[in-house]
Amino acid sequence: MKSLNVVSLFSGAGGLDLGFKKASFHTIYANEYDKTIWATFEHNFPNVKLDKRDIRKIESIEIPDCVGIIGGPPCQSWSEAGSLRGINDPRGQLFFDYIRIIKDKKPLFFLAENVSGILHDRNKKAFQSIIKNFEEIGYNVQYRLLNAKYYNVPQDRKRVFIVGFLNDINFEFPTLDNKFKTLKDTIFDLKDNAKSYNAKELDKFNHEYYTGGFSTIFMSRNRVRSWHEQSFTIQAGGRHAPLHPQAPTMEFIEQNKRAFNREKEHLYRRFSVRECARIQTFPDDFQFIYNNILDGYKMIGNAVPVNLAYAIATQILKYLSLTILPFYMRLTI
């Protein structure tokens, strides 16, 4: 249905796009400036036009009309573990290019995703400014901090989602599902496929895992969740990927210092790229293409979990179907 065309900005590897595709939306245009992601996006979305330019150099008129705009403006500057500069960081200011394009294109809805740090007290003024900007261009805006584990994702992962509808539509986020998906449900069948990373012999199915050393920061906390639990957050850095549940919980030594069980030290390894992808609910036929394994972890860690994107997209579709979309379709016939 032509009316369900969406534009994807700051697309990354396409977690949002895939979730929206499952909900019957169709991405017709995407923008991603990071060249390490291009091959992956184009391989998995061969029919989508990928604009590789800096979004600041893209005029709104160059972007096709659509029913919705989705995306995750860069989040490093808002992160609790990052630079904490928020809107004072040039990356944080890219949020206003996202708003600029929405203002000019006037889609029926938009969705923006960001890290939980954007809600921190130190960012309160900047975040309120962003919401006010959306409201001033005609959108009824709702936002919420969501944990992916309540949306069929086997992972503790908190992210902020901002959804805006034209007119007076009061969007409500999808209800929580307490039937948690576990690591055993998700990756148990992959345990014998994992292999250590070899830069000269990349695994096209992404079963390799990073083998670099563990920093003192990494060793300051337990990084192992058991099979019957959900994963820790899949981060964008491979060095900080959680450890596989085949290993026992890391032993407490003293405050901010843990250690591997000496008798079972061989069991401690990071999740493979494919295991991370499964935990982010990417299907196995979604191939991540990279020359450096750390780029694989980065793409997956920065993505919106596909099942969470699908839950939100389905809810957006319901609101469109019951309210705006029938009227919009009559106007376009």
From TrEMBL:
Enzyme Commission code: 2.1.1.37
Chain ranges passing through the membrane: none
Catalytic reaction equation(s): a 2'-deoxycytidine in DNA + S-adenosyl-L-methionine = a 5-methyl-2'-deoxycytidine in DNA + S-adenosyl-L-homocysteine + H(+)
GO MF term list: DNA (cytosine-5-)-methyltransferase activity; DNA binding
Claim: Methyltransferase is one of the keywords in the record: yes
Keywords attached to this entry: Methyltransferase, Restriction system, S-adenosyl-L-methionine, Transferase
GO biological processes: DNA restriction-modification system; methylation; negative regulation of gene expression via chromosomal CpG island methylation
Active-site residues, Swiss-Prot/TrEMBL: C75
InterPro entries tied to this protein: C5-Methyltransferase, C5_MeTfrase, C5_meth_CS, SAM-dependent_MTases_sf
PANTHER family for the chain: CYTOSINE-SPECIFIC METHYLTRANSFERASE, DNA (CYTOSINE-5)-METHYLTRANSFERASE 1
Membership in a protein family: Belongs to the class I-like SAM-binding methyltransferase superfamily. C5-methyltransferase family.
Name this polypeptide is given: DNA (cytosine-5-)-methyltransferase
Source species: Caedimonas varicaedens
Lineage of the organism: Bacteria, Pseudomonadati, Pseudomonadota, Alphaproteobacteria, Holosporales
